[in-house]
Design a protein that fits this description.
Number of domains: 1
InterPro entries: Class_I_gatase-like, Peptidase_C26, PuuD-like
Number of helices: 7
Protein name: Glutamine amidotransferase
Helix content: 10-25%
Keywords: Glutamine amidotransferase, Transferase
GO molecular function: gamma-glutamyl-gamma-aminobutyrate hydrolase activity; transferase activity
Pfam families: Peptidase_C26
CATH class: Alpha Beta
Oligomer: single chain
Length: 270
């Protein structure tokens, strides 16, 4: 790759179907990025592009803008956080408590197609929070729909009133990719009420929380296919208690330069 050519990184959008009172755009769907994550990638040399999703009610039909075109042009993909993944996607009916949580089947379907487009080309993928969970489902894994209900623990993984201020410690699994970046565990920002139940095929655990929940994984079959349940974009790297965001992002961007290896098949067959 030409050293002068910047790395082109796709970032999946969050979707907002109903704008709040006072918002200047009325009665239209909004697609947006949380700026901390975009800035984190840009800080380390990636040129960030939001990859817009398509809706059947939108101006573009599916054939007008193909996710494979993005996968051909862009060097890597980052899947950001957001609302819950619909349990039907991994073969389960929603449990009762899920009525209190938002899901977005439109985003689920789109991001899975986007993920497949990059994975079949074995281009690097980094998943954050929801993105981590979606990558697990893509590989045939399942999720705890609600940790407090299905896996009670004294460790809080979600408190809406604290949001990015909620932290807990993770331990790095010996012998994995993350151990090459971090000599020891540390604190991470944790904002999720769901988590990995069955680990996807070909994935290995890279980090766990103190209550044993999977907090990071990588693929043993693909190139750079890494997901973290935490939010590195909210870490304050100057504070030693946090796992620094820098090694993870730099490793991702380095992988985006190639070379690529033969990709594996996904499980969902999308």
């Amino acid at each position: 790759m030409d050293a002068a050519k910047p790395l082109l990184i796709g970032l999946s959008p969050r979707l907002l179907y109903k704008t709040p009172d006072g918002f200047e755009i009325k009665s239209k769907s909004i697609q947006y990025l949380e700026q901390n994550l975009a800035h984190l990638i840009a800080k380390h040399g990636g040129l960030v592009f939001m990859v817009p999703s398509l809706e059947s009610s939108g101006l573009l039909e599916k054939d007008d803008l193909n996710v494979h075109q993005y996968a051909e042009i862009l060097d890597g993909l980052v899947l950001q956080g957001g609302v819950d993944i619909c349990p039907i996607l991994y073969g389960e009916e929603p449990i009762e408590v899920m009525a209190n949580h938002k899901t977005d089947p439109i985003r689920d379907r789109y991001e899975l197609k986007l993920l497949k487009a990059f994975a079949t080309r074995n281009k690097p993928v980094l998943g954050i929070c929801r993105g981590f969970q979606l990558m697990n489902v893509f590989k045939g894994g399942t999720l705890f729909q609600d940790l407090p209900t299905q896996l009670p623990s004294n460790l809080a993984h979600f408190k809406s009133e604290l949001y990015e201020k909620l932290t807990h410690r993770v331990e790095i699994t010996p012998g994995g990719m993350l151990q090459q970046m971090y000599t020891a565990g540390g604190e991470i920002v944790s904002i999720h009420h769901q988590g990995v139940k069955k680990l996807g095929n070909g994935l290995r655990v890279e980090a766990t929380s103190e209550d044993g929940l999977v907090e990071a994984f990588s693929s043993t079959q693909d190139g750079f296919f890494v997901g973290v349940q935490w939010h590195p974009e909210f870490h304050i790297d100057e504070e030693e208690r946090f796992l620094s965001s820098e090694p993870l992002v730099k490793k991702f961007l380095e992988a985006c330069k190639g070379p690529l290896v033969k990709p594996s098949e996904n499980i969902l067959g999308l």
